[in-house]
Amino acid sequence: MSVRQAIQDVTDRIAARSRDSRRDYLGRLDAAREAGVNRAVLSCGNLAHAFAACTPSEKAALAGNKALNLGIVTSYNDMLSAHQPYQFYPDIIKEAARAIGATAQVAGGVPAMCDGVTQGQPGMDLSLFSRDVIAMATAISLSHNMFDAAVYLGICDKIVPGLLIGALTFGHLPAVFVPAGPMPSGLPNDEKSKVRQLYMEGKVGRAELLEAESKSYHSAGTCTFYGTANSNQMLMEIMGLHLPGASFVNPGTPLRDALTREATVRALSLTALGNNYTPVGHIIDEKAIVNGLVGLHATGGSTNHTMHLIAIAAAAGLHVTWDDMSDLSDATPLLARVYPNGVADVNHFHAAGGMGFLIQELLESGHLHEDVKTVWGDGLSGYKVEAKLIEDKLTFEAAPKESALPKVLTKVATPFQETGGLKLLTGNLGRSVIKVSAVKPEHRVIEAPAKVFHGQEGLQAAFKAGELNGDMIAVVRFSGPRALGMPELHKLTPSLGILQDRGFKVALLTDGRMSGASGKVPAAIHMTPEAVDGGPISKIRDGDMIRLDANEGTLTFLGDEKEFRSRTPATEDLRSQHYGMGRELFAGFRSLVGVADRGASVFQ
User: Fold this and answer.
1) Of the chain's two ends, which shows fewer C-beta atoms within 10 Å, N or C?
2) Does the structure show a pLDDT above 70 at 150?
């Protein structure tokens, strides 16, 4: 099964660019494998500490070096709806491990914050940095070197990328990611969005807004729109780290529990003590990364992954760029319409055929590499299935040949658009990205005067004061990684959407982020260089004419370029925003963090 040339070309250049760093990474992986799990060489005191809380039979097993021990790294807390079901997973995993003569221990917990709670709040400044904290917490969890394999319990925005970066630093260990699934469908996302806009216009009150939000986010499970959390689940499956069909099964169901038990068995079958050794560092190679990017484009996934996938790849010794992503987007058809790219939610996507149908379509059309390693075996073809529970037995049936909901999930032969959901923007203002899958064609080219704000609060205040009454490209700067930690600016979406609905030409230009659910208003985001580094965004003034052309992939200041370059960059005293809600503890992160197009990571 051959892959299309455009896909292969990007894969080849990633491999060539990464040759030395990937070789070094695999060398470290091999050395760690040869050193092995250290239980047999730990001192008696070390080992006694490690299994002090275990049962007598578990202690007897762990005293040797033959019985398998599975590490559980969990992001459980009961504030995140998506992560609340994980409360019971360790017991399920331990029982499944015991049933095959193995042991399992919770190796550690990692923090898990909710971007939905912190949107527009000071805590959002910690959101992106939490990814790297999670990676470090994962490394600490596994540092006891007691484990032959690990399972990772995480779903939401920075949590899965952080877990995977941490897992790749222990790349010699097999890794299976175990989802908890989306909550059942509630108030449709488009109706919730309408109530948000009515609230911003003063047409409904807080009580009505809270009622709508509560009907949308109403139970345990992932939020049902297609933002970063559900993009994470798609990625883990198409990159071969989930069991087939596992991503979007609702929590608290017998099928969900059966998949968790099988994930345990599968992880333990992949260890170095068996005949099917499959470490996570071998699974995540250039082909798996390209498969993930193709899946992201084909589904109109989260813009946050323009940073996360670069950071994940770097943890495996691979160098991926925005140019790679943009070229893959140009070569990938858009096959899914899930909110904000449509009115359906992820439950509709799953019912339409879900991941099995999507992978089948992309494989058979040559958009994915089939010859990859996965936790399910060699080759991605094993993922062209649906997971079902038949007479209490977990089974995997062939994915349907036709979508049950063609307006939600379609075939390669009839795409919603010929290219994917992402575009790289370049020009005399720097480099940024834009998600175009939810933006109507008539809004993809905007030429308008700039309206400059030093932070999202200024734009919101201007909107409430009735000062935004014309075409504009809103420039929200000093929101980049080094400035504030690159908070999401999703709270701006209702205001900008209202202005667009009033007939104005509107776009956003920022060195911050938008939500993974970036919507109908064109937004040039992740601008680099950022304003605090004196990037061109810091030289824009009110009234400057700017042209955003998402079709051509350009973002351009239209005035006298020589005069523009000679301008003194604007500055902003951000010290008051570096304290409170724990932000003072992250001064080191703000000084170390890299630029957006290199993953906005403190590790590079």
Assistant:
1) N
2) yes
pTM for this prediction = 0.95
Spatial separation of the C-alpha atoms in residues 137 and 272, rounded to whole Å: 24
Residue 584 lies in a domain: no
**Residues 181, 221 contacting (CB under 8 angstroms):** yes
**Percent above pLDDT 90 for the chain:** 81
Instruction: Let me know if 349 is exposed, middle or buried by CB neighbors in 10 A (0-12, 13-18, 19+).
Output: buried
* Two tokens, residue 408: 């939600």
Q: Which of 335, 366, 381 is nearest to 240 (CA)?
A: 381
Counted domains in the chain: 2
Contact call for residues 204 and 195 (beta carbons, < 8 A): yes
pLDDT digits (tens, 9 = 90+) for 506-545: 999 999 998 766 678 999 999 999 999 999 999 999 999 9
**307-329: average pLDDT:** 97
Asked if the structure places residue 449 within a domain, the reply is yes
Tokens of 424: 């790289």
CA distance 511 to 443: 21
390 has which bridge partners?
A: 393
Residues facing residue 554 across a β-bridge: 426, 549
Domain range holding 325?
A: 5-35+68-184+219-398
